[in-house]
Amino acid sequence: MFTSQALSTLAIAMLSMAPAVQSHMILASPKPFGTPDNSPLDPSGSNYPCKMTSATAGEGPMNDFKVGSTQQLSFSGSAVHGGGSCQISVTTDKNPTKDSVFKVIHSIEGGCPGVGGPATFDFKVPDALPDGELVMAWTWFNHIGNREMYMNCANIQVSGGASDNSKFEKLPDMAIANIGVGKGASCKTAE
C-alpha cells in the first residue's frame, strides 16, 4: 500500500513526464491553403510569407469574399500567449514572395487570437479589394513569450470589388516585425 506522500511524489513525477498539450494557433477560418503549421515564422524570414514552399500557393480551398460581406476569423490551437495583436491583410499576388505587398483590411489590437482561449472575430470585406483571386494573410504578434511573428494564408475569390487597384494601393501596408525580412529586420515587438 502506498502512503499519501508516496502517491504525491508519484503524481508529481508523472506530471513532469507528461507532454505539453498546448499548441500555438493556426488559422481555421478562412480556410488556409497548403498544410499550415502552428509554428511562428523562422526568425531569419526564410519562410516569409505564408510559410511558402514551391507547391503551397494555390493549394487548398478558395474562400469566397463578396465585398460588403461579413467574414469570420477563427483559430485552432490553445496557446494564445496572452493574446496580442493581429492583422488581416491581402496581396494581389497569387504566389506571394518576399517582395509581395500585403495591404491591411482589418486590425485587432490586443486580445487576438484570444486571452483565455481562442476567440472568433468578425470583419467586413472592404470595397477597396479588386475583383479576382487574391491571397489573404493572418498575422499575429503574441503578447507573452518569445518575440515572434505568426502567419497563415488563404486563397480568396473577391466579387463585387473594384475594377482597378487604386483604392487597394492606398490601404496601409501589413506590419512586419521580428523576422529578418524588409522592415521586420529592424523592427522588434516588446513583450
TrEMBL record:
Keyword Membrane carried by entry: no
Organism: Karstenula rhodostoma CBS 690.94
Molecular function terms from GO: monooxygenase activity
Protein name: Lytic polysaccharide monooxygenase
Signal peptide per UniProt: 1-23
Top-level taxonomic group: Eukaryota
UniProt entry keywords in alphabetical sequence: Monooxygenase, Oxidoreductase, Signal
Gene3D superfamilies: 2.70.50.70
Lineage: Eukaryota, Fungi, Dikarya, Ascomycota, Pezizomycotina
